[in-house]
Every structure is written in structure tokens, then in C-alpha cells.
Amino acid sequence: MTIRKAKTGDLARCLEIYSIARAYMRESGNPDQxxxxxxxxxxxxxxxxxxxxxxxxxxxxxxxxxxxxSGPDETYLEIEGAWLNDAPxxxxxxIASSGRVKGVVQAAVAFALxxxxxxxxxxxxxxxxxxxALARLGFRHCGTIYVGTSWEGRSPxxxxxxxxxx
Length: 166
Fold this sequence. Notes:
With 166 residues, this protein is an alpha+beta fold.
């Protein structure tokens, strides 16, 4: 698998992968994490323009997509629980796969660990697929964070941290 920054020409494939991921989440009992339209096209285009959206390709076909950014991340400033450490970290958001190949999450995490010694990620309590993947990759569940703003309601997410430091 290869990973590269997403380009404007990748937008349609990224939208397709997110649609596949939303359908998979609904079918696996997790209809609420991304609903029927998250992430919106405007947000994906913004992430591409900012250079923080990456694609995972197998044989030149995009099979996965994720956001990777350096912290601090506003979402992770408050946690019910405790992070493993306060060292600089990278954050992965909005990771999705076409479902046609295995190892997209593993490849994204390995790529993130090349950028930072610490990686943080969160997921919905009903996203058992992601929870299991994160556990297999050595992430530690650190507590609960909340996403959203006060006017749209705050939604809890399970917060995970993987550190190459002790």
C-alpha cells in the first residue's frame, strides 16, 4: 500500500469511499457516527486544499482516506480520563476504507507514527470495527472526548492514544 496527500482530482473517489464507510457503519449497528452525509464535500475539499487529507492506494487504486494533522487538536483539549502523556502528537480523523482491501487502518497508523511518536484518534462507542482495529494496533483507550458544538449538541467519543514513548 502507498500513502500520499490527496489531490483535487481524488475528491470523487474520497466521497465514494466515505459513502461506502457510512453504509458499512449503518449495517454494523453504528448509524449515528457519520449519519447520512458526513463528512460533507466542502470539508473534504477544504482538507485536500490544506494538505491534511491522505489517500491509501493499492495498485494505484485509492482504497482508503484519512485526515492526518499535528496536534494540538481542539477536540482533544478536554478529556474525561487522561492521555498517556502530554508530548506532541499527530491526530487521525475521518479514516475510511472501501472495504475491498485489508490493512488501511494499519497503513495509516504506521504512516502517522513516521510523523510523530504519539498518535491520537477517537471513535463512536458503536464502532466496534474501529475499536477492535485500534486495540490490535496497540492503542490504549484513555477516556471520553466530545465532538460538536453546544448548539448542535455534543456527542461522546471513545478516545485512544498510541505512544512510542514510555
